[in-house]
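Pipeline run #58 for the internal structure catalog. This entry was flagged by the ingest filter as a single-chain record with no existing model, so it goes straight to prediction. Upstream metadata was stripped on purpose; only the residue string is passed forward. Reviewer on rotation: M.T. Logging verbosity set to normal.
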Amino acid sequence: MRLSGKAGRAPATRESGFAAHRAGVDRLLASYRAIPDGATVRLAKKTSNLFRARAQNTAAGLDVSGLDKVIAVDPVTKTAEVAGMTTYEELVAATLPHGLAPLVVPQLKTITLGGAVTGLGIESTSFRNGLPHESVLEMDVLTGAGEIVTATRDNEHADLFRGFPNSYGTLGYAVRLKIELETVQPYVALRHVRFHTLRALQETLATIVTDQAYAGEPVDYLDGVVFSAEESYLTLGRRTDEPGPVSDYTGMDVYYQSIRHRGAEADGPSQPPKRDRLTIHDYLWRWDTDWFWCSRAFGAQNPKIRRFWPKPYRRSSFYWKLVALDHKYDIGNKIEARKGNPPRERVVQDIEVPVQRTADFVEWFLREIPIEPIWLCPLRLRDSGPDDRATDRVWPLYPLKPRRAYVNVGFWSSVPIVPGAQEGAANRAIERTVTDFEGHKSLYSDSFYDKDEFAALYGGKHFAELKKRYDPDQRLLDLYSKAVQRK
């Protein structure tokens, strides 16, 4: 079964794929040896999916130019072997022709598999498939010590296997990953269910996570959008091979705007919900065309501008370039100053709270932080580890509790800076509230924790032990130094 989407760059044979990969590994190791003793080891890459500021570094970095390919796809075992710098766009293009996809495909095409594992990723299959690192069967990691080790959940490097997620390159870099794949169908049938209260949405979401069904229909994909406390939606996706018309949100239409509709609270079987259909390819990348709703900041959702916006540039990788220009030249704040407005604080975060605290957090957020819409994505760990009671040993640098449902809340914008306010006031308030609600936040953006709180939240003791074993000479940054914004 060949599914829609451009052909990937999968190798002609398994042997050629591994031969090319070995050549890439040789270049990687040569570049490591060329870095002077005592110098910090970094990747030699110009692009990043991180929103926090990165220290300027002019020294030569690791050459990962040969580590951006799919090595092999095995449709029989439903596995893929992939170089660490391979983007999900390339990975999906190689697996869809076999009727397969990664268990979790993060929303943006340029996210790499290694990045999603070391930095965490999430999407609408996470309520049944967990997070991307949970589908990893084994991985080769270049450690800070300059060694490539193979880590699995039960070999001599199981501690690195467990500690690698959320380490953000502070323990090493993924060189090769072997991951599980799952069968997909050519289409995804969508059902958009509207709610007028966040409490009703929370209750329904929790039930769907448990039942993996709603109103008699199976649910294979699940996420949601909050436009206001009185208008929120869950989008329920069902795999199907039934032919029929499909929508296209890569042109003039904008996906998130298509979700909205009038209807009673928690549309049920007695009231037809709003329905839609996408190819599996377009469903997986439904958010990328407009970077969720962030393209509106660049005018790309204005029909008069969108009509002339080149289609190849309607994608997150191009918006990243615009963001980089804004960071370099402070364009946004200069425009605000011309309007007589104060500068703005960037509030770009993904956080997780237990599903029972979802409404509490979102209600607080809508009161205190003037940003909308908000994305919701439920998740539950697949793997509870050898001892469910030892929750800090499951994935110690991001210790979610086994068999407990969480909801990822994503918000990506900025707010006016109140004169005289502490630096990062809005982000600090979010951090405090997330901790109060027994949650965590991802570390890809600005953070303001002090060292003790950070260590308590992100596996400080475990990280120190891993750092001592796999980066004894501190060639890589430590996690606090890399992740936390400090002045």
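catalog note: The CA atoms of residues 190 and 276 lie 5 Å apart.
catalog note: Residues 14-34 form the longest helix (21 residues).
status: ready for reviewer M.T.
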